[in-house]
Amino acid sequence: MPNRSGRARHLTLVPDIPTLTDGPARFDDEYVDGFEVPAGIVQLTLDVTLSSGFPAAWRRIRVRSDLLLPEFHAMIQAAMGWGGRDHYLITTHAGSSAHTFCTPSMLAVGEVGQLGSHVRIDTLLSSPGDTIQYRYDHWVHVIRVQSVDTDVDDLRPACLDGDQVCPPEVGFEQLAANPRPKEESRETTIEAASLRLRHAWRSRSPEAESAAASPAVATLFRRVLEQPVPHLLDLLPRCELTIESSVDLPVARVAMAKVAWFLQLVGNRGVRLTDDGRLPPPVVEAVRDNLDWGIGWVGSSVRESDHHQATDLREAVRSLGLVRVLKGTLVCTKAGSLLADDSIGLWHHCAARLPLGKQDYELDSGTLYLVALAASASAEQRDAMVVQTMNALGWGGGECNAFDTQKLAHPTVAFLDLIGAHGPLFYLGGGGTDSPSWARRFARDALRTVK
Questions:
Q1: Does residue 421 contact residue 437 with C-beta atoms inside 8 Å?
Q2: Full residue range of the structural domain in which residue 371 is found
Q3: For the chain, is the Cβ count within 10 Å smaller at the N or the C terminus?
Q4: What span, in angstroms and rounded, lies between the C-alpha atoms of 235 and 327?
Q5: Whole-number Å distance between alpha carbons of 100 and 242
Q6: What is the helix, strand, coil percentage profile of the chain, to 5?
Q7: Which of 267, 360, 278 is nearest to 314 (CA)?
Q8: Domain for residue 155, yes or no?
């Protein structure tokens, strides 16, 4: 029900999340989601050794760390001189468990693994000594990180060292009948591999570019599998996810004003909550009087239950890890205390923790609302994209509508509305066109940041 500002009240608009028993069918991606993906790009120097060769062919190559596995496959093919067929198995070990990534064609013939189409190589190889196994046909390679270089002035792939050529692409039983290629000098092997590597790099599609730049978008693509999501693909190029963050202090102060003020209010002494865990009336009154709510604050009541803004503020700072409840008192966490007077740090902290929510449907829908905001999508474009993608993911049995998806994204939507990122017309059907200029940057930072 809208209030006098024309904006619907969150607590009446968003009831308890409905039970969604028809979750999306997906491969298990917890392993990938649990790895820390570097937000920036570094250079990985890798030793690639054909372990089943005789004598073993090997290459030392330098590649960019944001390669998706299909791109990485192309780099290994070029470096080693293989034929470049589109199938591979990449296996990595975490403790006692092995995890395998492969192509759709490999899954179709019965291989067990996860699709690697939107997985960055630095989720698997990020530190010196990290090792994976790469299999192409019958040929097994061991790939090990030799070093990591933060100098990214030249991101072109290169072969730095190596020796020997790979055997013919036949099975072991046919190898005896197929003579090995003529041996090359070591210098020729390295030069030829570098030339093939330079020719192997191809410009990326918007889908691949977005998946490489944004771990959140990559997760969506892994979960959506082969379902078509053309509205999402139309908006992603407009997000400009390859642009680095450039927030300045005046912008950060405006965007984080309410969050910073609340942290300063909690301070070192904390805020004693009511018996039902809400803000006490004097604090609600301070929230009303000291923060800019426009004409959205209705009535003279100072009970939190009558004002969704106070509830949204309390729940948001807690979800963001800035405050916690200790024996009935709301107190700042270490992060909250450090960031209360650091608007730029607070901007990056909040962006890094979006989308908000504990359930997958909250995270998926929240990510899509961030995409819409980063792309400055209209209300019609936003709703069409979010509904189509959430249905492709299988939420709600594939029958979600715009009202459903906004409810599912409530933790993220409420926070964006709280800080003013949506603009005043959001609940009147507006999209991102009336949002402040900084909102796109904030949404883009949220999509690019490692969770």
A1: no
A2: 1-11+225-451
A3: N
A4: 46
A5: 28
A6: 45, 15, 40
A7: 278
A8: yes
